[in-house]
């Protein structure tokens, strides 16, 4: 840092000396002009010495697209293979239940990997972790795409998760590096839209690829998407966590830092609250086949179209969230969003056990609208106080989110109630606890 300051000062003095020489040689110049330029050069030197080192970056469409891509690729790589399970099972000679191991192994690795990526990114910067993670992800994608046995496919999925967890964690950390306050909330809102769009559109895309080109084409597409994302990252943004802001972590300091975050109510209460809210969305993914296909009678293509249609609800809510927060405050809109999502789960509880498509769609639109309002604002509130530890905070948030998602998807699969009742109970309960935690956070902050 000192070398940079001295170099900058030298460049400024050298420029000013050249300007003085020009003035001296010029017959139209005066002593007053030279004195003014010397004073300006002194001001330039002072400014360089005291300037903050934090990266300043406007919220442009390019930055939003990059953050969205980093956040969405993990969801894309997960949900896009679901429609191909019958074809994969037939080709590899395994059952659909056994193929579920490719999802559970991915989620477990993804959750644990985030806890490692966070402190590494705070110590070594974001760029190395993002690019290295995407390279590992491509390797795993190749292995999965060439798999001839279930074990090989699971190994490829584990390697995929090890790589892609870096992109997911660091999308939030990079946003915190670049933005604060309302701009941070807006960036996270737009990123959340992409995160929701990926599981919405990817099943439809996966079914089309599997039907036309075979299931291995899915992994080719995902791998090419990772390569394009890495190139886009290098060309458009690069490192956002400069050396002077990095935190050197030992193993002991990492454990203590995670402990400190877990005990800090400014972080842990909104983090758990938003994780519970998002877990209702993952529960709906687990319950959707039983409700939409077995219960209501939709085909796989119609189910894919249904998921794609729900994306527009999240898109509208994500666009509205920053504007409503600017007018009424982030905390109020977050609480209203959680209450709205809870009402969506309640509609499933009070409705029929075998609902029509219209009733189920109404409940999910209500839930998704509330989730779309609350999640980006609540995430920004959790991340805001922890700029220096943004990587670790994002990693712990991701770990909690995946843990909550694993719990609710497991409950949606094992509970013996009607699928609609199970889903409604999970969503309503999770949102109620999320609402209480967020209210408690606001009370303690006063």
TrEMBL record:
User: Where do the Major facilitator superfamily (MFS) profile domain residues begin and end?
Assistant: 63-446
Query: Entry's Pfam families?
Result: MFS_1
Any stretches that span the bilayer, and where are they? 63-87, 99-117, 129-148, 154-175, 187-209, 215-234, 267-292, 304-325, 332-351, 357-378, 390-411, 417-440
Q: What is its main location?
A: membrane
Q: Keywords in alphabetical order, please.
A: Cell inner membrane, Cell membrane, Membrane, Transmembrane, Transmembrane helix, Transport
Subcellular location(s) of the protein: Cell inner membrane; Cell membrane
Report which superkingdom the organism of origin falls in.
Answer: Bacteria
The record's similarity note reads: Belongs to the major facilitator superfamily. Bcr/CmlA family.
Write down what this protein is called.
Answer: Bcr/CflA family efflux transporter
């Amino acid at each position: 840092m000192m070398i940079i300051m001295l170099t900058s000062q030298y460049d400024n003095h050298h420029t000013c000396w050249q300007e003085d020489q020009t003035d001296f040689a010029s017959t139209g110049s005066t002593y007053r002009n030279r004195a003014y330029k010397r004073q300006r050069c002194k001001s330039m030197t002072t400014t360089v010495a005291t300037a903050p080192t934090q990266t300043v970056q406007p919220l442009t469409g390019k930055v939003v697209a990059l953050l969205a891509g980093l956040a969405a690729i993990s969801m894309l790589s997960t949900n896009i293979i679901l429609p191909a399970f019958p074809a994969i099972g037939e080709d590899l000679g395994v059952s659909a239940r056994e193929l579920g191991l490719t999802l559970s192994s991915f989620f477990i690795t993804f959750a644990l990997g985030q806890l490692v990526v966070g402190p590494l990114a705070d110590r070594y910067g974001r760029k190395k972790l993002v690019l290295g993670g995407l390279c590992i992800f491509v390797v795993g994608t190749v292995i999965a795409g060439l798999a001839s046995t279930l074990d090989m496919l699971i190994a490829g999925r584990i390697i995929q998760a090890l790589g892609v967890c870096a992109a997911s964690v660091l999308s939030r950390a990079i946003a915190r590096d670049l933005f604060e306050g309302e701009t941070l909330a807006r960036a996270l809102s737009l990123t959340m839209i992409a995160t929701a769009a990926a599981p919405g559109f990817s099943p439809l895309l996966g079914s089309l690829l599997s039907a036309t080109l075979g299931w291995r084409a899915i992994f080719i597409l995902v791998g090419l998407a990772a390569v394009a994302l890495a190139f886009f990252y290098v060309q458009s943004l690069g490192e956002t966590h400069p050396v002077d802001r990095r935190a050197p972590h030992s193993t002991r300091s990492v454990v203590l830092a995670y402990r400190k975050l877990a005990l800090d109510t400014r972080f842990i209460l909104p983090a758990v609250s938003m994780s519970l809210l998002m877990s209702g969305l993952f529960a709906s993914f687990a319950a959707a086949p039983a409700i939409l296909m077995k219960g209501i009678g939709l085909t796989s293509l119609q189910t894919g179209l249904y998921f794609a249609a729900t994306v527009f609800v999240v898109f509208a809510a994500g666009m509205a969230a920053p504007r409503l927060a600017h007018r009424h405050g982030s905390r109020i809109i977050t609480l209203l969003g959680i209450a709205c999502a809870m009402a969506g789960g309640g509609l499933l509880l009070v409705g029929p056990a075998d609902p029509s498509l219209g009733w189920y769609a109404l409940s999910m639109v209500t839930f998704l609208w509330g989730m779309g309002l609350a999640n980006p604002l609540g995430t920004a509130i959790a991340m805001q106080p922890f700029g220096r530890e943004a990587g670790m905070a994002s990693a712990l948030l991701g770990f909690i989110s995946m843990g909550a998602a694993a719990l609710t998807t497991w409950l949606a699969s094992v509970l013996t109630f009607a699928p609609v009742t199970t889903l409604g109970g999970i969503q309503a309960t999770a949102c109620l606890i999320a609402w209480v935690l967020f209210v408690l956070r606001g009370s303690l902050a006063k």
